[in-house]
Design brief:
The protein is mainly α and 79 residues long. It has one domain (7-67): 434 Repressor (Amino-terminal Domain) (Orthogonal Bundle). Helix content is 56%, strand content 0%. It has four helices and no strands. The N and C termini lie far apart (41 Å).
């Protein structure tokens, strides 16, 4: 049985993907910068991984973005 991704996890994953693409990075590059496996990063971006707060913080730090931008209404910013 395939479960439907949680809407919040999909939103966070979409924002991470948008921020990564704005920087021109591949999933592999972001995963390396955040210290996670590329396949794990793929799951995050698709909203199928329920990442921990610590992993979320590592991804946000790698993107040089405040964690709250991954939740909030404002989109990712270029740095």
């Amino acid at each position: 049985m395939v479960s439907t991704p949680d809407p919040l996890l999909r939103q966070i994953g979409t924002r991470i993907r948008e921020a990564r693409r704005l920087k021109g990075w591949s999933q592999e590059e972001l995963a390396d910068r955040a210290g996670v496996d590329r396949s794990y990063m793929s799951g995050i971006e698709r909203g199928v991984r329920n990442l921990s707060v610590l992993k979320l913080a590592r991804v946000a730090r790698a993107l040089r973005a405040p964690v709250q931008t991954l939740f909030g209404a404002e989109g990712p910013t270029r740095h």
